[in-house]
Amino acid sequence: MSTNGINTPLKLQFGLINYENRYLTAEAFGFTVNASATGLKKKQTWTLEQNQENQVVFLRSHLGRYLATDKDGKISCEKEVPDPDCRFLIVPQSDGRWALQSEPHLRYFGGSAEYLSCFAQTIGEVEQWTVHLALHPQASMLSVPRKRYAHLSIADDKLCTGRDIPWGVDSLITLVYLEGKYCLKTCDNRFLRNDGKLVIENEPDTCFTLELKSGKLAFKDSEGKYITPMGPTGTMKSGRCSTPWKDELFDLEESHPQVVFQGANKKYVSIRQGVSVSANQNDETDMETFQMEIDKDTKKCMFRTNGGNYWTLVSHCGIQATVTEAEENTMFDIEWLGRRVALRASNGKYVCTKKNGHLAAVSDSVGEDEMFVLKLINRPILVLRGENGFVCHHKTSNTLDANRSVYDIFSLLFNDGAYQIKSGKGTFWYVSSSGLVCTDGDKPEDFIFEFLVYGRVGIKAQNGKYLRGDQGGTLIANGINVDNFSLWEH
């Protein structure tokens, strides 16, 4: 997928659901496949690799092996390098489902349970698969022909594709999966309708069938027309086309956390005055917003401005936003100190707020001047996915599951360096005496968010423990240290 350079393109990962509502599953034992699972987890996740020139696709399992079929229709998934038997074509159906055709053998893939084959000469109900995206549903959305990002335009009260870069809270798009179709939700919890209006309630005209063309996504409405940017502002609405051409194609890109900092002087850190990074502003604008990019290997953090420059340590120990490429002096360690954070620069010194508001990495220890309030601004609505699945309300109790293939959407409220989490019913998360995370609180309870590794956040409760999914799949605050089960995609 293409990118304007500010964010990382997302790999297209998904689950495939057969006519019996079961997911295609890749097993480690014998590298076999079946269609028996009822939910979308790691073993049911497939990555699409596509040859852009001739539309051939390869399906790679979570084990890094490729789906294949021989001339007799026998299915396998053990090849580490794709060969001709791994070549498939996607044949989209009118309702958005896929038929998968073996390119060398011209037969169609289908079946149920352990009985899967690729030998059908025609497409029947058995050979049709529903696509369930497996990526985190919150992303930036890029119009392919316009090379502009979707955002909620306050002036027009529309979802428009007019941003050069996806910046701020209004550039966050949440994909909501409902019975095989997708809705597009804006940051203020409204749904895009096919006529371009934003509405509070979900309805048939807010549900779109997801289609794939040349590795890009298209959204087809209930009348068979496709969402397209229209007019000078790029207002997103259904056009006249009943076939997706270039104007109807979109990319999804990773949405990094974007934050504002408040120094010890109660002023917001800003670049409004030029290249120097200083805590000297009273309000939050794009000039006070910085994108956090955590290095996958070192776990150090970089802060990018909306102009594409990184904070960097300069020779007199000041902090300026002058560098366009990542390097040693753009890397900062974040120390999480409850409701406050401290930043250590590449010279080993802590960043402090000087009396004139300028930031400088000159301190050997952390005191009041070295502490900052960090506020996440582009996640007003929250979807969490952990090692075993999404966080979702338990069906019969006030607790939360952490192993679901569907997700619930929660509201995130900032409170002096901490966050309060509200459910759709207007009640709040809290931790019970036994450590269970409950959702029916009348009063808000504070949680600390720690952005510890690339694409993941640790969430610490008031009992000092991290939220994690236990063996039974329940969300509980009992993690002493951060591990794979207490880190959450957000």
UniProtKB/TrEMBL annotation:
Entry keywords, A to Z: Actin-binding, Cell projection, Cytoplasm, Cytoskeleton
GO molecular function, one term: actin filament binding
InterPro entries attached to this UniProt entry: Actin-crosslinking (IPR008999), Fascin (IPR010431), Fascin-like_dom (IPR022768), Fascin_metazoans (IPR024703)
Domain Fascin-like per the UniProt entry, residue ranges: 21-131, 141-252, 264-373, 388-489
GO process terms (BP): actin filament bundle assembly; anatomical structure morphogenesis; cell migration; establishment or maintenance of cell polarity
Highest rank taxon of the organism: Eukaryota
CC annotations in GO: actin cytoskeleton; cytoplasm; stereocilium
Protein name: Fascin
Origin species: Triplophysa rosa (Cave loach)
